[in-house]
C-alpha cells in the first residue's frame, strides 16, 4: 500500500465476539482477515470501545429499559446496549488472536459516562473530537481503510466521518461484521452508497496499492 494509506482496526474486542456481552454474529471471523491485511499496510491504528461502569448507553442505566430499545438523550437518539467493553475488564480487551503489535496508536472512545461514541473521530454528539482526525492529518495520511466491528455502528460512523473530514475512506467488507439491530445493516449500506465511502474486498486491496 502507499505510505499515505492507513488501516484503522475498529473495536475487535472480546465483548463484540461470540461469547461476549454484545456479540456480533461471526465477529471473531474478522481476526485472520485483519491480521493478513495488517501485513500489507505500513501503518495501522486500533480503536477500543472503553466505557465507564454504568455508562449512559447501557440499557441497565435506564430503569425499565431493555437492550436494543432506543431512547432520546441530549444529543439525539441512542440505542441502548447491553453492558459491554467496561474499562479494564476482559470484555474490553482485544481479541487474543488479533495481531496488535504493529499498531502505532490505540484510540479509546466512549469513556465519557454521559455520551456514547461510535465514530473513531467524534463522540455521538457529532462535535467532540477524539483527536484521530488531527493525528491522521498531521501524519500526512490521505486514505483510511476501515475493518472490524461493527459494520453498522462503529465502522460505519468512523468511515463516514473520515470521508467528511476529507480523507478517502474505504470499508473492507469481508473484514467487518455487523450487529443488525432494527435494519441498521441496510441503513449502513445505503448510507455508504450516499456518502463517499467506498466498499472493497480484502482480496482486491493489495492489488489497489500502487
Ligand atoms: C459498538 C455499539 C456500542 C461498535 C460499540 O463497536 O460498533 N456498537 N458500542
Ligand atoms: Zn460501546
Topology:
Layout: E1 5-10, H1 30-38, E2 44-49, E3 70-73, E4 76-79, E5 103-109, H2 132-138, E6 143-149, H3 151-164, E7 168-177, H4 184-194, E8 197-200, H5 202-208
Parallel strand pairs: 1-2, 1-6, 2-5, 6-7, 7-8
Antiparallel strand pairs: 3-4
Zinc ion binds next to loops.
How would you portray this structure in words?
This protein is of the alpha/beta class. The protein has a single domain (5-51, 82-163, 182-196, 205-209), classed as 3-Layer(aba) Sandwich (Rossmann fold), CATH 3.40.50.850. The protein is built from five helices and eight strands, in the order E-H-E-E-E-E-H-E-H-E-H-E-H. The strands form two sheets. The protein has a six-stranded parallel β-sheet. Strands 3-4 form a two-stranded antiparallel sheet. The radius of gyration is 16 Å and the shape is globular. The model has no long low-confidence stretch (mean pLDDT 96). The structure holds pyrazine-2-carboxylic acid and zinc ion. Residues 49, 51, 57, 81, 84-85, 110 line the site of zinc ion.
What characteristics describe this protein?
six-stranded parallel β-sheet, binds zinc ion, 5 helices, binds pyrazine-2-carboxylic acid, two-stranded antiparallel sheet, 210 residues, alpha/beta, single chain
Brief digest:
The chain is an alpha/beta fold and 210 residues long. 23% of the residues lie in helices and 23% in strands.
Judged by helices, strands and strand pairing, the structural class is alpha/beta
CATH-scheme architecture: 3-Layer(aba) Sandwich
Q: Give the end-to-end Cα distance, rounded to a whole number of Å.
A: 7 Å
What is the CATH T-level topology?
Rossmann fold
What is the average per-residue confidence, as pLDDT, rounded to a whole number?
A: 96
CATH class membership: Alpha Beta
Secondary-structure element order, as H and E? EHEEEEHEHEHEH
The number of distinct structural domains comes to: 1
How many strand units?
Answer: 8
Specify Rg, calculated over alpha carbons. 16 Å
Mind telling me the CATH superfamily name?
Answer: Isochorismatase-like
